[in-house]
Automatic annotation (TrEMBL):
InterPro entries: TPR-like_helical_dom_sf, TPR_rpt. This is Uncharacterized protein. It comes from the Bacteria. Residues 1-23 form the signal peptide. It comes from Sphingomonas sanxanigenens DSM 19645 = NX02. Keywords: Signal.
Amino acid sequence: MRYTPVACALALALAAVSSSVTGQRPDHQVDARSVALVERAAAARTAGDLNGATDLLETALAVDPRNRSAFIALAGIAQAQQLPGKAIRMYREALLLEPTDLAALKGQGEALVQKGAIAKARENLARIKGLCSAATCAEATTLAAVIDKGPPPTALSAKAVTPAPTVAVEAVE
């Protein structure tokens, strides 16, 4: 008799949890409309329309936020636009969906090098080497080469190239 309230509460909790789990789609099932938008974005990027490709990829993510390839493509565009911080964030989103995605790990490592975070890029390289089953892994080789090359030279800011103002001193007579 004293276990009845506990049993009822557990049964209710089990029913609530199981009904919410059955309503979710598996990770590997990405909405076909989202996949089509990613393909259109790839065509736009090939044509050189980075802004149009970004818009299509963001729409693809609005349709299905579990589309890992859309995150990876957005990160690639961000790298092409010299926005490594945005690229790192997009790769992180892809890695939250699939932590063992070699392409996302490699891309994030390259973006980290682009930003100057070599130590973090080496961590990604170590993760890739741990995940690769083959003796030679293309992702590991590529990322190691990028790390060895190092970050790109820093671009000069407007402040760095603007000459200091000169004040003319007039002679007082």
